[in-house]
From TrEMBL:
PROSITE patterns the UniProt entry points to: CYS_MET_METAB_PP
Protein name per the record: O-succinylhomoserine sulfhydrylase
EC numbers: 2.5.1.-
Gene from which this protein is expressed: metZ
Originating species: Leptospira ognonensis
GO MF term (any one): carbon-sulfur lyase activity
N6-(pyridoxal phosphate)lysine PTM positions: K205
Described purpose of this protein according to its UniProt entry: Catalyzes the formation of L-homocysteine from O-succinyl-L-homoserine (OSHS) and hydrogen sulfide.
Database matches in PANTHER family: CYSTATHIONINE GAMMA-LYASE, TRANS-SULFURATION ENZYME FAMILY MEMBER
Classification via SUPFAM superfamilies: PLP-dependent transferases
GO cellular component, as recorded: cytoplasm
Gene3D superfamilies referenced in this protein's UniProt entry, alphabetically: Aspartate Aminotransferase, domain 1, Type I PLP-dependent aspartate aminotransferase-like (Major domain)
Highest taxon, organism lineage: Bacteria
């Protein structure tokens, strides 16, 4: 354990084996050997710590959790096979029939499905509140509310919640605060330092950062993690050693990648803001962002995501996408390659137009996850697509 984020991200490592390897090996094994009958008994009884079966733990997933928990400044963590398994279990493991969740209205599409279509089957209800509307949050608390679930910045509108305010609000009402920190990563924002109880991640995005694997994690308070780990071990949404190994390696470069993503994104946002074919551009570290001051307070950098609306509405937005020559049209984000999506027709197509507008998704809104290519090439690509889509 070190004082500095970058050193922890590189040096937290599974103890070396007898082979004296430098880099952590991949432990592709479903189970582990007991020394003798007594050791087997003691491990099953949880009297001693140790690996027994990779649904429960594996050196690669343990290394990843030790690292991520440290990077998020939290006590402990549970690995998951995907970000959605992490999101679902962070709530499911702590709730029972009759409980209620208060969530920010603009949340990830599949998280919306969990709240609106899956939890109601178990008599777990929810209320949405607008990020900036304090009365809605106050009015949303019921006697049976247990959890507050938020994303900041939101996807794709990039609205920001004041983490210190929402933490104080949750403490005052005795609620568990869960923050999806996917867009920022712990290099840019650490919700637990502002008082969040749990932080959830999709490792699929910036943590891997190269568009290769699906993974997730829940980090946070030891007592809550204990409950979540119990459910995860018994029900089996386990992260594979292979995917944990890949992400743990990726974390070694997280700091420099997030620096570069943010630098490129800010330059692109500044270019777009001056372009007369653009109706709107939103980026947390542009002074024109409505919550610029708040973004500067709780985020170290602006992150890799820029949203824009091209003049000419939905049709023009589609023409713009078709005029792109090499940006990837894909559902993923947080890749070293610049990726682009049109939320209204893809990730948020299941919402009604009114629901979309309520979370800041205009018909022509385009989300760009700015990659690590040279900024001159990124700007040239956008610039030619704007010129060729009139
Ligand atoms: C992608 C994403 C998820 C889900 O993660 P998966 O790894 O795809 O399951 C959850 N929250 C946010 C904000 C995301 O962007």
């Amino acid at each position: 354990m070190f004082e500095n984020f970058e050193t922890d991200a590189i040096r937290i490592q599974t103890p070396r084996t007898a082979q004296n390897e430098h880099s952590t090996p991949l432990f592709m094994t479903s189970s582990f050997i007991f020394e003798d009958a007594e050791h087997a008994r003691a491990i099953f009884a949880e009297e001693v710590q140790g690996n027994m079966y990779s649904r429960f733990s594996n050196p690669n997933t343990t290394e990843l959790m030790d690292k991520l928990a440290r990077m998020e400044k939290t006590e402990d963590g549970v690995p998951f096979a995907s970000g959605m398994a992490a999101v679902f279990n962070s709530m499911f493991a702590l709730l029972k029939s009759g409980d209620h969740i208060l969530a920010s209205r603009s949340i990830f599409g599949s998280t919306h499905s969990v709240l609106t279509q899956i939890f109601p089957r178990f008599n777990i209800s929810h209320t949405y509140a607008d990020i900036g509307n304090i009365e809605e949050w106050e009015a949303g608390v019921k006697p049976n509310t247990k959890i507050v679930f938020i994303e900041t910045p939101s996807n794709p509108a990039l609205d920001i919640i004041d983490l210190s305010w929402i933490s104080a609000f949750c403490k005052a009402h005795n609620l568990i605060l869960i923050v999806d920190n996917c867009f920022c990563t712990p290099y840019i924002q650490r919700p637990a330092e502002w008082g969040a109880d749990l932080v959830v991640h999709s490792g699929t995005k910036f943590l891997d950062g190269q568009g290769r694997v699906i993974a997730g994690a829940v980090l946070g308070r030891k007592d809550l993690i204990k409950e979540i780990r119990f459910i995860a071990r018994a029900t089996g949404p386990s992260l594979s050693p292979m995917n944990a190994w890949i992400i743990s390696k990726s974390l070694e470069t997280l700091a420099i990648r997030m620096e570069k993503h943010s630098e490129n994104a800010l330059k692109l946002a500044e270019f777009l803001e001056k372009h007369d074919e653009i109706e709107l551009v939103k980026y947390p570290f542009l002074p024109s962002h409505p919550q610029y001051v708040l973004a500067k307070k709780q985020m170290k950098l602006g992150g890799g995501i820029v949203t824009l609306v091209v003049k000419g509405g939905l049709e023009r937005g589609r023409k713009f996408l078709d005029a792109l020559k090499w940006f990837s049209l894909t559902a993923n984000l947080g890749d070293s390659r610049t990726t682009v999506t049109h939320p209204a027709s893809t990730t948020h197509a299941k919402l009604s137009e009114d629901e979309r507008l309520a979370v800041g998704i205009k018909p022509g809104l385009i989300r760009i996850s700015v990659g690590l290519e040279h900024i001159d090439d990124i700007i040239e690509e956008v610039s030619q697509a704007l010129a060729n889509s009139k």
